[in-house]
Amino acid sequence: MRNLALIVFLFFCIYALVARWYFVCQLRQKCDPPPATPVQDTLKDVRLKTLRLTKGDSVLLRDYDHFAFDSASVLPVLTDNNMAFLDTLAAILRADTNLMLTITGLYRPSEKDAKPGFFENIGHARGDAVRRLLMQRGIREGRITLDNTAARNENLQEPLHFELYEDDDRPDEFEKIQFIFTNMTFSDANFAFGSDEFRPGEPFVLYADSVKTYLQLHPDKKMTIIGHTDNIGTNKFNTNLGLRRAESAREYFKELGVVNKIRIESKGEGRPVATNKTEEGRQKNRRVNFVLE
């Protein structure tokens, strides 16, 4: 019996260590991220020197090397010039805490269906990889929002765009999205067209499993699920559709075993993140937002 008790105790210790690592490194993302791929000195690395940092119509930094990404990779291949850009950008953000940053990540046409980790879009994942490099320089994650857009060709010569804005001066018509663990957004690709039928994709399934673990470790935490739509259809229909989709997502978490309080709401077409004049913009506006607090 003494040996059995010892084995049970050791198993519990191993489980506790693994659970702690998973929470700290995977959920809270406090561990150091994998290092970005360095540039090999023996290879000729030709890049456009047109990277800029903008704020409205002003250009604050210019003529830096663009970042580079191998095909289907989310980790940037860094030059010393890239590091200098990040150092200067971090210094600007530290000097003015009212400033926020949007990183727009681009993706090749061949990478359209790549969905790394929690992200439904590799452009978001690339922006997040650079956000982590800025976090290493002391910038709070919540000050950096993400966006994505498709590149025109496979060259991907300008894979990232950087734009500063002040939180209280952001355009009223467009909302910024963080894409962080405690404030994550997923597209309407997880639902049947024009319906609240929930068809979760792999990135959402991975996220939901991690949220379940997080909420089990934090029974005092709660979740808010917010449905958003484009402006096709009546305002009443869109508000109702957003609410029904939020309810479907809530039921998914309940079936997963989440017992924490989950509140739902709908913003309908009222909080777009992009113009509704293009299909790309409308697709971005059709989304569901998950907030942990």
Summed up, what is this model?
With about 290 residues, the chain is an alpha/beta fold.
What does this structure look like?
- By secondary structure, the chain is an alpha/beta fold.
- It has two domains: 37-169, 2-Layer Sandwich (60s Ribosomal Protein L30, Chain: A), CATH 3.30.1330.60; 183-292, OmpA-like domain (60s Ribosomal Protein L30, Chain: A).
- It has six helices and eleven strands.
- The protein has helices spanning 2-27, 80-95, 122-135, 202-217, 235-256, 279-285, and strands at residues 37-38, 51-55, 58-64, 77-78, 99-107, 144-150, 160-166, 183-187, 223-228, 262-268, 287-292.
- The strands form three sheets. Strands 3-2-7-5-6 form a five-stranded mixed β-sheet. Strands 8-11-9-10 form a four-stranded mixed β-sheet.
- A hairpin with a 2-residue loop joins strand 2 and strand 3.
- The termini are far apart.
- Residues 39-43 have low confidence and may be disordered.
Please describe the topology of this protein.
Layout: H1 2-27, E1 37-38, E2 51-55, E3 58-64, E4 77-78, H2 80-95, E5 99-107, H3 122-135, E6 144-150, E7 160-166, E8 183-187, H4 202-217, E9 223-228, H5 235-256, E10 262-268, H6 279-285, E11 287-292
Parallel strand pairs: 1-4, 2-7, 5-6, 9-10
Antiparallel strand pairs: 2-3, 5-7, 8-11, 9-11
As residue ranges, the low-confidence spans are: 39-43
How confident is the prediction overall: mean pLDDT?
87
Largest sheet: 5 strands, mixed
Task: Count every helix, treating DSSP H or I runs of 4 or more residues as helices.
Answer: 6
Beta-strand share of residues: 15-25%
User: Helical amount among residues, as a percent range?
Assistant: 25-40%
Total domains, how many?
Answer: 2
CATH superfamily of the largest domain: OmpA-like domain
Computed Rg: 21 Å
- Compute the number of strand runs: 11
- CATH topology of the largest domain, anyone? 60s Ribosomal Protein L30, Chain: A
* Strand order in space, largest sheet: 3-2-7-5-6
CATH top level assignment of the largest domain: Alpha Beta
